């Protein structure tokens, strides 16, 4: 049996991660499988401000320098760093440097005597005429003579040197830890890179304005002196270094403790395969759809050649009528294809009139208010709490009930992509009414003197409202309650994977190991939807902005690209891991109450008396008794009536269409209180984000009946983790429903897997809501967080994945193969012709 045939599928591996440790080794596994399972986490020693922002996988942890903090603690406490032998009176030399001193070190791997002959000479000649003292990590024997202003030794306690108040400048080779230490102490830099990643590090310090690149190929006495003079005399380098030093030291937790915490987390969970990106199982050419892009490039190239051929036929007046029609069709096709805790003041805009969305936003707003921040919250669902701080102001938006009702009624009839398009048109109407709202208009009016430290905007289809960040000159913070969408990824520069298991924005979900034709269709559907958002929906929103704020405004996509932070309500354990942009902060369960409120007396007695247990049924707020198919409703009633369990059913009509003696019916329940009850056996739901968090938190097995949008994908993930069964709404029959209920209730593994998942999601290094608030305050403290922004968002879409390069190579290979094939054919013809002639 081959290694590939022995390898478990992604679904099997996903099930394993929800299993207790002793069940993970039931069968013999290959080395690759073992490596995938146990190598679940990576610690990255990387100071984020100094590294260009890029994508992060779910199982990587960036760290700001563990080595530095250990040594730093010794220095700050007055302990002497470990010495490598007796040192001269270095301190006296530094204290006497009235004009300041320059520290020079090329690290431990670069030897001055191995550099080109003129290198040492250029530095010595340049240093000897300076008014500053020089502290040089150098073998003193290499100096041609003794210099009064130069102290050369083979080793220095570097952090003690950098911490000295008289230091003016650090000349170094671009070493990683030296960069961190210079940043920590706020010392301007001159980078003299020699090997490996040092040029990259120095390029970053130049980009941030905290240093200058001194190049070895243009080195001379004059360039050394001029570069030193530039950095010391130009105060902008010191100012920028102080700014980035402040950002670097502004961390939500202790770096070392956080790394140790995650190592212990991996040990507790016996590995973290659930954080591993499934893309690592795909062939290299499928990870970015290179085969699809190459195939499409060749197809387009062939169509182009056919078009040229047809055009030539037209010019020769042959097949005029037929070719004219073909030319018109092809021309139209091409035209269409080318379209292919200092308190701050915060403006919060959360327009979506759905309770499941608002409950998350309200929890965050209340927590910010408790921290002392003043909030102006624009929302369709007011909290109406008289005990709220006076610094909490709500602007009531219309509930758009008729529009939302019409949209809900269309859900069963429309494909997902059409639902997206209708949904965006709906949010466009919401945005129009928000701009027209008198109280809101008073805020953004040109004569308004309102000022805000941040603007928090819900990102579920309201790009026009991002203009408020520009209007108030405040950093923009996005928040979304159901995960990042592909059009968000397009704007932020994150990769879009049409055939990854995480992609639910297609009419048919991607299955395990899809064929190339399935992947081709996924590619077309995914990019067609992104194309519609960019080329059809965004222009409507841009016109809306111009209507209310004038023509002299930036493009809303450019504003969104510069978003400081993206807050995402998503549990990384319960989703398919994938790389995301570095300015995304994930949170989950912030709406879950530590102690759920008491149940109403009648419901409490009903549940307490459920000796066999009870089943809780809720299909959310978007699915109503009017939109649920009548046949489906009858199937529910028939199956429930025969069960020995009691039924608690969130049903928004006044009465059921059939008799159900064992049921408690209500239009609304305290859901968390119901899920927390010890007698609950099963939760039947539609796959909502917040309901999923609550079910996992209380370890309640799930029967998912997804209705719309991302619900099917969320339920599918829970099925792969072993905590749920899924039934599609259009496939629900009495037999399937009854079998699914009994399978979950009779098989203890579903409950055990949910207990395991609950443990995983609760095992966090910090409080989720406190972490979100810290990052919001971080943005307000520093006025932005552009160092977290992924620079690829500025590139054209085809360059982000090298689509133009892949297309060019695909066409070149296609032409080369055609030429080779034609050459072989000509050779064969030549041989055959010669053979025939030789016979005569």
TrEMBL record:
GO terms for molecular function: UDP-glycosyltransferase activity. Pfam families: UDPGT (PF00201). Keywords: Glycosyltransferase, Membrane, Transferase, Transmembrane, Transmembrane helix. Residues 1-24 are annotated as: Disordered. SUPFAM superfamilies: UDP-Glycosyltransferase/glycogen phosphorylase (SSF53756). The chain crosses the membrane at residues 292-315, 322-340, 805-832. PANTHER family: EG:EG0003.4 PROTEIN-RELATED. Belongs to the UDP-glycosyltransferase family. This is Ecdysteroid UDP-glucosyltransferase. It comes from Mycetomoellerius zeteki.
């Amino acid at each position: 049996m081959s290694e590939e045939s022995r390898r478990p599928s992604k679904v099997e591996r996903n099930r394993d991660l929800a299993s207790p440790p002793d069940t993970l080794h039931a069968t013999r596994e290959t080395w690759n499988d073992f490596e995938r399972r146990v190598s679940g986490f990576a610690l990255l020693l990387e100071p984020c401000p100094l590294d260009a922002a890029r994508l992060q996988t779910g199982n990587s942890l960036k760290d700001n320098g563990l080595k530095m903090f250990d040594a730093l603690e010794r220095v700050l406490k007055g302990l002497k760093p470990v010495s490598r032998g007796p040192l001269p009176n270095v301190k006296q030399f530094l204290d006497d440097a009235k004009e300041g001193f320059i520290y020079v070190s090329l690290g431990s791997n670069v030897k001055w005597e191995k550099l080109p002959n003129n290198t040492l000479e250029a530095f010595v000649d340049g240093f000897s005429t300076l008014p500053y003292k020089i502290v040089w990590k150098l073998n003193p024997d290499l100096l041609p003579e003794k210099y009064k202003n130069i102290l050369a030794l083979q080793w220095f306690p570097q952090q003690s040197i950098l911490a000295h108040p008289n230091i003016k400048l650090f000349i170094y080779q671009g070493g990683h830890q030296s960069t961190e230490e210079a940043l920590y102490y706020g010392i301007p830099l001159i980078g003299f890179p020699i090997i490996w990643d040092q040029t990259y590090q120095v390029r970053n310090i130049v980009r941030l304005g905290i240093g200058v690149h001194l190049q070895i190929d243009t080195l001379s006495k004059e360039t050394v002196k001029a570069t030193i003079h530039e950095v010391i005399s130009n105060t902008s380098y010191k100012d920028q270094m102080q700014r980035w030093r402040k950002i670097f030291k502004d961390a939500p937790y202790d770096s070392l403790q956080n790394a140790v915490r995650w190592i212990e987390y991996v040990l507790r969970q016996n590995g973290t395969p659930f954080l591993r990106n499934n893309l690592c199982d795909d062939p290299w050419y499928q990870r970015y759809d290179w085969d699809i892009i190459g195939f499409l490039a060749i197809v387009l190239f062939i169509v182009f050649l056919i078009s040229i051929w047809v055009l030539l036929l037209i010019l020769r007046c042959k097949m005029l009528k037929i070719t004219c029609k073909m030319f018109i069709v092809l021309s139209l096709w091409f035209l269409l294809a080318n379209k292919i805790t200092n308190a701050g003041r915060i403006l919060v805009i959360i327009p979506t009139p759905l309770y499941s969305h608002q409950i998350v936003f309200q929890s965050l707003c209340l927590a910010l208010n408790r921290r002392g921040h003043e909030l102006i919250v624009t929302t369709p669902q007011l909290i109406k709490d008289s005990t709220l701080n006076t610094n909490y102001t709500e602007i009531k938006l219309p509930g758009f009930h008729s529009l939302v009702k019409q949209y809900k009624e269309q859900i069963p009839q429309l494909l997902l992509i059409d639902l997206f398009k209708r949904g965006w048109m709906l949010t466009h109407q919401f945005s129009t009414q928000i701009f027209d709202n008198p109280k809101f208009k008073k805020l953004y009016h040109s004569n308004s003197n309102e000022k805000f430290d941040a603007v928090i905007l819900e990102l579920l289809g309201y790009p026009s409202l991002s203009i408020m960040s520009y209007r108030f000159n405040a950093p923009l913070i996005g928040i979304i309650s159901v995960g990042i969408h592909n059009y968000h990824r397009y704007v932020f520069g994150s990769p879009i994977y049409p055939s990854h298991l995480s992609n639910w924005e297609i009419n048919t979900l991607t299955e395990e190991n899809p064929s190339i034709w399935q992947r081709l269709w996924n590619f077309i559907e995914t990019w067609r939807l992104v194309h519609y958002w960019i080329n059809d929906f965004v222009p409507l929103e841009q016109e809306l902005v111009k209507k209310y704020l004038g023509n002299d405004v930036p493009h809303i996509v450019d504003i969104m690209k510069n978003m400081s932070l993206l807050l995402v309500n998503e549990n990384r354990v319960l989703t398919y891991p994938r790389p995301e942009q570095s300015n995304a902060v994930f949170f989950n369960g912030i709406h879950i109450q530590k102690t759920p409120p008491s149940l109403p007396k009648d419901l409490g007695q009903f549940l307490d008396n459920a000796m066999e247990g009870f089943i809780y049924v809720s299909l959310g707020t978007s699915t109503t008794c009017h939109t649920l198919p009548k046949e489906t409703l009858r199937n529910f009633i028939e199956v429930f009536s025969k069960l020995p369990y009691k039924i608690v059913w969130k049903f928004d009509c006044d009465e059921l269409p059939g008799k159900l003696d064992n049921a408690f019916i209500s239009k609304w329940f305290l859901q968390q209180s119901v899920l927390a009850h010890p007698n609950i056996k099963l939760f039947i739901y539609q796959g909502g984000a917040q309901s999923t968090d609550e079910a996992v938190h209380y370890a309640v097995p799930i029967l998912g009946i997804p209705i719309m949008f991302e619900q099917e994908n969320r339920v599918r993930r829970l099925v792969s983790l072993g905590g749920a069964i899924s039934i599609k709404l259009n496939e629900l029959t009495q037999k399937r429903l009854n079998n699914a209920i009994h399978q979950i209730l009779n098989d203890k593994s579903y409950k055990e897997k949910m207990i395991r998942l609950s443990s995983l999601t609760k095992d966090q290094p910090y409080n989720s809501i406190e972490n979100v608030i810290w990052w919001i305050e971080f943005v307000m403290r520093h006025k932005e967080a552009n160092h977290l922004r992924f620079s690829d968002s500025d590139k054209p879409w085809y360059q982000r994945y090298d689509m133009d390069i892949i297309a060019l190579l695909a066409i070149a290979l296609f032409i080369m193969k055609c030429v080779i094939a034609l050459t072989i054919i000509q050779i064969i013809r030549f041989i055959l012709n010669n053979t025939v002639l030789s016979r005569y």
